[in-house]
Design a protein that fits this description.
The chain is an alpha+beta fold. It has helices spanning 3-12, 23-26, 28-37, 159-170, 192-199, 230-252, 356-381, 397-413; strands spanning 44-48, 57-63, 66-72, 78-82, 96-99, 103-104, 111-112, 118-120, 139-143, 146-150, 178-188, 260-262, 269-274, 305-310, 314-318, 323-332, 335-345, 416-419, 424-427. The chain has eight helices and 19 strands.
Length: 428
């Protein structure tokens, strides 16, 4: 059986409500397909505008085998280009942040403006047409200061719908007037889909995330009512009442808070503002703000946490005092980069307005705990005893939505028509 037929067969027999078959997590061929069909065709979250505040500031991100430069041009616009010199293909900038006047190839010094136009070459002759050799552009879109890129020739247009829906939620937090207080890169020893699946549920939180479950209510991520004892049932009912009261209070302040779930869109997303336990202020170990500089013109510290998830590779938490963003980038079938950024008000001073440890300790611990869980899930997927297991309908619904979205996007890429009612696929 050819590899192409094998992949199509895997897609066709995916059973809704169950985890994916092992090759989706272990196969190099499936991984290569993911880079092409998912990360090569969809909007991928890669950076925040505070990384490139001034003209000439740039950040370079690797997405699979592609390297992309995101920069601020002289007109303060955000642009993106493939990190490939048009001479002999050398990379112009290394991965990470830098600041440039122009983009100069380190190999033969071909020089490009911040608009991607080729400005200068030596020894190419009088008849050489510079206008035909500018940098190749990449689709780029800032949504409230979150920067997305798309490597496809034609990018999905529903990014407009995402922006229209989500910007009223996140703009009050004024991300563009923040700065990065801390950033980490963590390589998880698992497939990128296991990283995303782990993020999409909190079934595992109690017992695995002692720091995160201080500010977060476990009931905010689903539960089976018939599994609760009388005491926990009372707590769950109080949480539902708190959620309704909090949404009413926050929306009276002009802060949209209620759930939007469009995870099945091509550019899938979901958002909701959730209460925080304790003081209700921030995702910290004492549930109080880690920075005394409130973001934007927010009217209160006790604004819970606004969560924003996107398919296929990000999640974000917006609070009154800081923002945490997460970008997931596949490296190999069993290695995944999780890039986390903590942002505070641009005028906040470390040691005066905020304590870095208090700001970062919850998610630093949680990220490592999640990485450990992803590693044991990856190890299990390589076992001959592995077979897809059933999701909890109460606590793993968002995992199912992620996997269903993923399978549907592979199907669309490979020209298959998915019969969702039957859970099978046929050639289009």
């Amino acid at each position: 059986m050819s590899e192409s037929v094998s992949v199509d067969a895997l897609i066709a027999r995916r059973k809704p409500g169950y985890s994916l078959e092992a090759p989706f997590y272990t196969s190099q061929s499936v991984f290569d397909l993911d880079l092409k069909a998912i990360f090569g065709r969809h909007w991928i979250y890669v950076a925040v505008e505070p990384e490139i505040p001034e003209p000439g500031d740039c950040v370079t991100v690797d997405i699979g085998r592609a390297s992309v430069i995101i920069l601020r041009d002289d007109d303060l616009q955000v642009r993106a280009f493939y990190n490939v010199c048009r001479h002999r293909g050398a990379r112009l900038t290394p991965e990470g942040a830098s600041s440039v006047g122009n983009l100069v190839c380190p190999y033969h010094q071909w020089t490009y403006g911040l608009d991607g136009k080729l400005l200068f070459t030596e020894h190419m002759g009088a008849e050489f047409d510079h206008s035909c050799h500018g940098l190749k552009p990449v689709h780029v879109r800032s949504v409230g200061g979150l920067i997305f890129v798309c490597l496809a020739k034609e990018a999905p247009t529903d990014i407009d719908a995402l922006a229209a829906a989500i910007e009223p939620y996140i703009l009050p937090h004024d991300l563009r007037n923040c700065k990065i207080a801390h950033s980490t890169d963590l390589v998880e020893l698992g497939n990128w889909k296991l990283t995303m699946e782990n993020n999409r549920e909190c079934y595992h939180c109690v017992g695995n995330h002692p720091e995160l479950t201080v500010p977060l209510f476990e009931y905010g991520f689903g539960f089976a009512p018939d599994s609760l004892d009388d005491n926990r049932r009372v707590h769950a009912e109080r949480y539902d009442q708190l959620l309704a009261e909090s949404h009413a209070r926050w929306e009276s302040m002009g802060l949209p808070s209620r759930e939007i779930d469009r995870l099945t869109d091509i550019t899938g997303f979901r958002t909701q503002r959730l209460p925080i336990d304790g003081s209700g202020e921030s995702q910290t170990k004492d549930t109080r703000v880690a920075s005394r500089k409130t973001l934007g013109n927010l009217p209160d510290r006790s604004l819970g946490g606004l969560s924003f998830w996107t398919q296929p590779n990000s999640w974000h938490h917006f609070m009154s005092d800081h923002i945490v963003t997460f970008s997931v980038l596949p490296l190999t079938p069993d290695r995944t980069l999780v890039r986390t950024r903590w942002l505070v008000h641009k005028d906040a001073v470390e040691g005066v307005d905020y304590n870095l440890q208090a700001l970062t300790e919850v998610w630093t611990a949680t990220n490592q705990q999640d990485a450990d869980l992803v590693a044991i899930a990856q190890a299990g997927a390589t076992s001959p005893a592995y077979e897809p297991g059933p999701y909890s309908p109460h606590t793993e619904g968002l995992v199912e939505k992620f996997c269903a979205w993923y399978i549907d996007r592979l199907s669309a890429h490979r020209g298959l028509h998915r019969d969702l009612s039957a859970g099978v696929e046929v050639a289009a």
